[in-house]
Write a structure and sequence with these properties.
The protein is an alpha+beta fold. A hairpin with a 5-residue loop joins strand 6 and strand 7. The longest helix has 12 residues. The mean pLDDT is 96.
């Protein structure tokens, strides 16, 4: 696994990771703990919901996206996450889905407040095994520059 410094990023850079299998037990446990709604926690109640069965909480999908990002082949010299933009959940995540992440660099610019670092905007698309997007977002991160060699 290589470290990507701000200097290494360019618009169009792409990477992917996955799959991550969403187990029913994990989906229900997360729902019970953090988003206790019947369509996240109760298979019987979920069957009569608009989803027609259990679905993962959007918070859970975001956490899986974060996990997948730590398994990309190259990791940024991350100084800080700066937020996310345009978060969408176009399709539900169901038990047994295998999720994958694809990232693409949309923008990179030097930081005005942190010399030697830069701000990188990455489009994140989490898709299921049928290549249907289940989460899209643009993540902003502060990435360190390449250290000076001795």
């Amino acid at each position: 696994m290589a470290t990507l410094y701000f200097d290494d990023y360019e618009v169009g850079y792409r990477a992917s990771s996955g799959p991550y299998e969403v187990r029913e037990e994990e989906l229900v446990e997360f729902g019970e703990r953090f988003d206790p709604r019947p369509f996240h926690t109760d298979p019987v109640a979920a069957a009569s919901s608009i989803f027609g069965g259990l679905v993962a909480s959007g918070c859970h999908v975001f956490c899986i996206r974060s996990w997948l990002s730590t398994h990309l082949p190259d990791q940024p010299s991350l100084l800080a996450g700066l937020g996310s933009e345009k978060l969408d959940l176009p399709n539900p995540v169901r038990p047994g889905d295998a999720l994958s992440l694809e990232v693409e660099c949309l923008e990179c610019r030097p930081s005005r407040s942190r010399p030697g670092a830069g701000i990188v905007k990455m489009r994140n698309i989490v898709s299921n095994q049928r290549a249907e997007p289940v989460m899209t977002l643009d993540a902003l991160m502060l990435v360190g520059g390449r250290p000076a060699s001795d």
